[in-house]
Amino acid sequence: MVQWISSNFRCLFNRHEPVHDDVTWDGAHYISNCHRCGSGVRRESQGVWRRDWLQL
Ligand SMILES: [Zn+2]
């Protein structure tokens, strides 16, 4: 439980981790799914993945 909270803490603040084996380029950014929370995520800049802001 404590571990779950700490691993999802970053997700709550919109700092996600992509599934590195499943990253695709959509013509604008790299997109993937967060391996912690499962949200669709989009790479904002090097190492910075945000919840996908172009599709809800
Ligand atoms: Zn996440």
Description:
- By secondary structure, this protein is an alpha+beta fold.
- The protein has one domain.
- 20% of the residues lie in helices and 29% in strands.
- The protein has one helix and four strands, in the order H-E-E-E-E.
- The protein has one helix at residues 2-12; strands at 24-25, 30-33, 40-45, 48-51.
- Strands 1-2-3-4 form a four-stranded antiparallel beta sheet, with no helix packed on it.
- Strand 2 (30-33) and strand 3 (40-45) form a beta hairpin.
- The longest helix is centred in the N-terminal third of the chain and has 11 residues, at 2-12.
- The radius of gyration is 11 Å and the shape is elongated.
- The relative contact order is 0.22.
- The mean pLDDT is 91.
- Bound molecules: zinc ion.
- Residues 11, 16, 34, 36-37, 39 line the site of zinc ion.
- Zinc ion binds at residues 11, 16, 34, 36-37, 39.
Structural class: alpha+beta
Order of helices and strands: HEEEE
Helix content: 10-25%
**Poorly predicted runs:** none
Describe the structure concisely.
By secondary structure, the chain is an alpha+beta fold. 20% of the residues lie in helices and 29% in strands.
Topology at a glance:
Layout: H1 2-12, E1 24-25, E2 30-33, E3 40-45, E4 48-51
Antiparallel strand pairs: 1-2, 2-3, 3-4
The protein binds zinc ion (ZN).
Descriptors for this entry?
single chain, 56 residues, alpha+beta, four-stranded antiparallel β-sheet, 20% helix, elongated, binds zinc ion
